[in-house]
């Protein structure tokens, strides 16, 4: 039996969030359950609902009809809906482990790993250099895009699970933590050092500042009011954020200088539109050549115009200077925003290997570094990336740290070989406009109040109803409440083939026993079929078991043990409350004593 392929939106999400399931639950007005689905893979839904680059929307098949579903806005809706909900608590049956794990950095990668590890039962301490947790979320994104109360709410929710967060604590030697009774360390310091322009006097002149320092001062309430004209050099989100922040701090005029065209700008198109709506000017095909100054203070720039040549290593066309096109422009403040990199100077000469870019060398799958017990992930490994990429790295690190401490293999697989025909719904649907969140008017954007407003309940339900529910199972997750496993088996009434549906759910996420254990299957040309679902788990035939113990060593969920059987012989036994039906034990059993068939029949209810 092969698992049903995930929907394209879920595949596109680096964190593997079950988009189709939570969007479907929103359309059914089940907002709390929708949030629970998101939280299984994304502990920062309110943050991602505002600043995620939403790769899921790029793969949404609804775009073949009119426009992709507004998935990010829907995530924000359910996250905001739950702001007043009671705090989440760990289940009483959570295993309490003696090992301690250190996390260096409280950005999205670090806080995600801390969340996962504390839920497994580890004692987790997060060390943060800044006075408040959040990393680049806190100091690199302005509150008119990501309000600080949202950061506080979501990080506090994780801290209440038992994560200890020590702020104002800089860790220059993460290896040293391994000798302080920490079983493992996750190094996730982000990329907080700006890239220089390479112009003479840029480090000496007053009035020239890196965007990271500028945004940090503004986000921590330490920035001074601005006057006159401000120039921002760069074309990414940090450049746009810096320009919009400068405007709110009182700058008379703000202009962005970018050496390519708008088509090549890496900034989010929506952010560019917002900047233009606020009156910020963008000058394309311009490159700085010299800093103008007087009495040790910058007064402007000498620039040269460019044209686009052949593509460079980034795949974008390289800007080529046009001889004789030099010009000067004045400014009271010049903000550099051409990129950033991690500060890893303290690791130079240590056993931790660094790449030629100054990032930490780590396995892309396990996050393991060259030092046993030290793991790294997020921007300190990849360079500047997205919030959702960092969250995915945090998940990988947590799994690998758990595997390292327990000496288990973190990978899982599903056994079987039978093929199953995919049931893809026809792309015939009634045209429906995509819901666009309301925004403050340009005149109202003088403060740092959030610009984009949430969808209303009726708007969210209508937008979620545009989802096509790609694939044979709608992933309505109604089969989950009584199934503590990660997968269930369904059988179509007119077919002997079994559908194996993987459910990325944590145990006891849906404890309500009153909800039905059913799933709904869509079939082209026929009405949906409602089926009862049976959890898939491994079971042992004691007549074949040799009690070799290989399955016990392989099980990452500690669900198998050797027990007394008869006549002094032992057999393996599966704990159904711990088994996740992953099938790993089947692959190592030398006697064929393990099976993963459901232990009950599936009943059809048409």
List keywords for this structure.
606 residues, five-stranded parallel beta sheet, 18 helices, disordered C terminus
Please write out the topology.
Blueprint: H1 8-12, H2 19-27, H3 31-41, H4 45-51, H5 55-58, H6 71-81, E1 100-104, H7 108-120, E2 123-127, H8 136-139, H9 148-159, E3 164-166, H10 174-177, E4 182-187, E5 193-194, E6 208-210, H11 211-219, E7 229-233, H12 237-248, E8 253-257, H13 269-277, E9 281-283, E10 286-294, E11 297-311, E12 317-321, E13 327-330, E14 333-336, E15 340-341, E16 374-376, H14 379-382, H15 387-406, H16 457-464, E17 487-491, E18 498-502, E19 518-523, E20 526-532, E21 534-535, E22 539-540, H17 550-554, E23 560-564, E24 570-574, H18 584-588, E25 594-595, E26 604-605
Parallel strand pairs: 1-2, 1-4, 2-3, 4-16, 6-14, 7-8, 7-14, 8-9
Antiparallel strand pairs: 5-15, 10-11, 11-12, 11-13, 17-18, 17-21, 19-20, 20-26, 22-25, 23-24
Helix pairs in contact: 2-3, 2-16, 3-6, 4-6, 6-16, 7-15, 11-12
Structural class estimated from helices and strands: alpha/beta
Strand order of the largest sheet: 3-2-1-4-16
- Gyration radius (Cα, Å) is 27 Å
Largest sheet: 5 strands, parallel
The rounded distance between the terminal residues' Cα atoms is 24 Å
> What does the overall shape look like?
globular
Report the average pLDDT across residues.
86
Number of strands: 26
Low-confidence stretches: 1-5, 411-426, 503-514, 598-606
Q: How much helicity do the residues have?
A: 25-40%
Quaternary organisation of the protein chains: single chain
Strand residue percentage:
15-25%
Count of helical stretches:
18
């Amino acid at each position: 039996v092969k698992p049903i392929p995930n929907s394209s939106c879920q595949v596109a999400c680096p964190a593997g969030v079950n988009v189709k399931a939570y969007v479907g639950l929103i359309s059914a007005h089940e907002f709390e359950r929708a949030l629970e689905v998101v939280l299984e893979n994304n502990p920062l839904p309110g943050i991602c609902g505002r600043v995620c680059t939403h790769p899921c929307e790029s793969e949404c098949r609804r775009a073949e009809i009119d426009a992709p579903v507004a998935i990010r806005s829907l995530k924000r809706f359910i996250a905001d809906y739950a702001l007043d909900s009671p705090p989440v608590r760990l289940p009483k049956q959570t295993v309490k482990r003696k090992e301690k794990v250190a996390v260096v950095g409280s950005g999205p990668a670090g806080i995600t790993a801390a969340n996962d590890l504390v839920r497994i039962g580890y004692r987790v301490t997060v060390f943060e250099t800044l006075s408040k947790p959040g990393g680049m979320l806190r100091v690199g994104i302005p509150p008119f895009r990501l309000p600080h109360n949202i950061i506080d709410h979501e990080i506090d929710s994780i801290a209440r699970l038992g994560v200890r967060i020590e702020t104002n604590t800089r860790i220059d030697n993460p290896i040293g933590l391994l000798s302080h009774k920490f079983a493992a360390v996750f190094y996730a310091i982000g990329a907080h050092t700006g890239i220089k322009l390479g112009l003479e006097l840029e480090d000496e002149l007053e009035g020239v500042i890196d965007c990271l320092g500028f945004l940090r001062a503004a986000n921590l309430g330490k920035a001074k009011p601005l006057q006159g004209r401000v120039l921002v050099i760069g074309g990414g989100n940090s450049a746009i954020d810096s320009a919009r922040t400068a405007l709110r701090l009182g700058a008379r005029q703000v202009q962005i200088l970018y050496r390519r065209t708008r088509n090549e700008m890496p900034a989010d198109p929506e952010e560019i539109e917002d900047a233009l709506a606020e009156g910020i000017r963008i000058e394309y095909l311009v490159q700085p050549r010299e800093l103008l100054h007087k009495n040790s203070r910058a007064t402007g720039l000498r620039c040269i115009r460019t044209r686009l040549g052949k593509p460079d290593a980034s795949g974008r066309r390289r800007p080529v200077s046009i001889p004789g096109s030099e010009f000067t422009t004045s400014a009271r403040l010049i903000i550099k925003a051409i990129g950033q990199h991690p500060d890893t100077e303290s690791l130079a000469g240590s056993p931790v290997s660094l790449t030629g870019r100054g990032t930490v060398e780590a396995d892309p799958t396990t996050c393991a570094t060259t030092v046993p017990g030290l793991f790294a992930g997020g921007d300190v490994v990849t360079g500047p990336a997205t919030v959702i990429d960092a969250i995915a790295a945090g998940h990988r690190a947590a799994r690998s740290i758990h595997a390292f401490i327990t000496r288990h293999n973190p990978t899982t697989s599903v056994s079987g070989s039978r093929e199953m025909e995919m049931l893809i719904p026809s792309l015939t649907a009634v045209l429906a406009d995509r819901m666009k969140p309301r925004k403050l008017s340009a005149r109202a954007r003088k403060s740092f109040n959030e610009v984009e407003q949430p969808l209303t309940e009726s708007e969210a339900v209508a937008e979620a109803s545009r989802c096509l529910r790609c694939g044979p199972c709608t992933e309505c997750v109604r089969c989950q409440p009584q199934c503590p496993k990660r997968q269930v088996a369904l059988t179509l009434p007119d077919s002997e083939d079994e559908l194996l549906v993987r459910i990325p759910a944590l145990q006891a996420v849906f404890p309500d026993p009153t909800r039905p254990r059913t799933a709904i299957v869509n079939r082209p040309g026929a009405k949906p079929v409602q089926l009862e679902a049976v959890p898939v788990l491994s079971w042992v035939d004691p007549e074949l078991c040799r009690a070799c113990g290989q399955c016990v060593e392989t099980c990452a969920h500690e669900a198998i043990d050797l027990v007394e059987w008869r006549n002094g012989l032992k057999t393996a036994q599966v704990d159904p409350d711990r088994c996740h039906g992953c099938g790993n034990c089947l692959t190592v059993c030398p006697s064929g004593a393990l099976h993963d068939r459901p232990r009950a029949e599936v009943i059809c209810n048409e």
